[in-house]
Amino acid sequence: MHADLGRYWYSMSASLNRIAADKAAQIETALVLMTIDSELGKYVNSLADRGHFDAVQVAPASSAEVPDEAGGVRAVVLGVADPHNGREGSEALVEAKDILMQRGSTPRVYRNMLVFIAADARQLDNLKDAVRASLAWGEVVRDTERLNLTQSDSALAKAKLAEANETMKTRLKEAWCYLHYPAQESAQADVEWVSGKIPAQDGLLARASKKLVAEEGLLAELGPTRLDRDLQKYIWSGKAHLSLKDLREYLNRYTYLPRLKNQEVLVKAVQAAVSGMLPGSFAYAERWDEKSDTYLGLAIERAGNAAVVIDSDSVIVTPDVAEAHRPAPPQPGIGGTPAGPSDKVPETGRQPAGGPPTSSTPEKKPTRFTGTVMISPERPARDIHQIVEAIVEQLTTLPGSKVKLRLEIEADVPSGLDRAKVRTLVENANTLGFIEKSVE
Questions:
Q1: Nearest-angstrom CA–CA distance, 163 and 158
Q2: CB 244 within 8 A of CB 268
Q3: What is the DSSP letter of 219?
Q4: What is the model's pTM?
Q5: For 309, phi and psi rounded to 5 degrees?
Q6: pLDDT tens digits along 304-316
Q7: Are 355 and 189 in contact (CB under 8 A)?
């Protein structure tokens, strides 16, 4: 049966839907797969928000197409040929491992700069059906004259094509939902793969980036205490100082070290270490002069304006060594304005006339620190973790220090709290040992 402008009739010719279905069945699988990779590339490259990724590689044909560079973190979006089925031997993990270890025929150097995104194998069948429908309706629209379609059928075909395209785009976004990245418990351990589904919200790269940060698979910020903990574990090994250029290389190469968003994260960590009131986890120097046993441009504390650069000369220095090489404070009268003819120098062993006895007054050090900070209710664990690293651990490791922490919660709920919710909150507060609590 056919229909047009409210008229219905029977005809021996095929209906529009039957024509599209027949064309979809005749489309070769290779064309479907090629179309999916092409649409995937268009979608990913059109994303304005790339999260914390410095570069993105879409559907590489081989490991040789993925650059081996020491810039920021690169997201490799695997093509339709390499989906993930939730198992260790999936095509996605096999391809990811190959890309991680090799670039073509040569070993890959910067392995800690790669993370991978793959499609869910179970969702690809629906996506392939949507692509076939899109291609089929596209052919119908192009063959309007040859098929001798009525004006109504032609408009219907265009509407069906638009609908099929939207369905294809929606299913494409839903299909690419697996995140994979390498990790190591220690330098001697085997590389393990962390895999998980990306929440279905925002753009693909933004979603993957947020999940990475939440799991600490990627660090957009790094406290000096956390960095020093890894340095103590793997790199310091009794060294007096470390080249910042070498440290950057280590962080880019080895998957047992933190994966930093880019070089700027390392720079800010060093700046944070030398900008406090007291010496931090390490000091910074522009250069180590071996002949004179001197650290040039040494910054230990209260150096918030220090220009930290990462080059072949700059180094970070252990606290003990930095303290031993601390520049002596300038002495009065040395290197200053020469004494004038009217200035009298007191005789040896006698005090200057009319003045009090001179004495060196020791510098009074601060003995108390207090601070208040707002914490994001969406991601409190992340903020608290950073505060513990950057502030609390700096204080608790000092001999004789007594640290008190107080957490205050204020919540306004315009719609009101029902009895069940109030009971849950009060019971949990009692269990957790809240000193004060109230519901108004």
A1: 9
A2: no
A3: B
A4: 0.72
A5: -125, 155
A6: 888 999 999 999 9
A7: no
